[in-house]
# Entry
Amino acid sequence: MKKILIGTHNRGKFKEISHLISRKYRKISPLTLKIPSPEETGKTFQQNAKLKVNFFSKFVNYPVISDDSGLCIKSLHNKPGIYSARLAKQRGGFNKGMKYILKKMRNKKNRSAVFVCCLSYKKPKKKPITVIGKINGKISNQIIGTKGFGYDPIFLPKNSNITFGQMSKSKKMLIDHRFIAFKKLKKKIKIL
Ligand code: IMP
# Structure
């Protein structure tokens, strides 16, 4: 069976990316291979996604797919953006991170936000192919829902009155930023 390394230590992302890729592939996690995470020194989602795919590719001789993603909030100057994971870590977890964001948003009229996902795919000895997917939405007034992962409970995708945190995994997975990026990637590489 063909193998693919899903270059992320985030279990939520691992599950979503795994479900998007054909059953023909055996999906391998860096956790299983005890591969550490690289330092995210990039200044953009694209730079970080490429940096990750290049890093993980050094450990295996089969294709690797990595993602860099995050939540960009308009009235917070597009923060936390590439620092989404780091914000949660600094605050002591996602619940505290979401509370911090809601506090910052308390007096903001504009609650527009975008979830961004940059996917980078690399075959051995080839250059990475990188695409970006986005979904617009709004930041809710409260933390709502227990499904999903990360910032899902404060993100209301456009045309929806429920947050990602209230949505079933199967529904979220077919509309979110990762899915949009994956569709673009599939057009470019026609496998997976
Ligand atoms: P990084 O790509 O490893 O830097 O982390 C991205 C951060 O954004 C993580 O903290 C994720 O939990 C969060 N994030 C990315 N995609 C999603 C999503 O689909 N739902 C909720 N949080 C997400």
Summary: Residues 2-189 form a domain with the Maf protein fold (CATH 3.90.950.10). The mean pLDDT is 96.
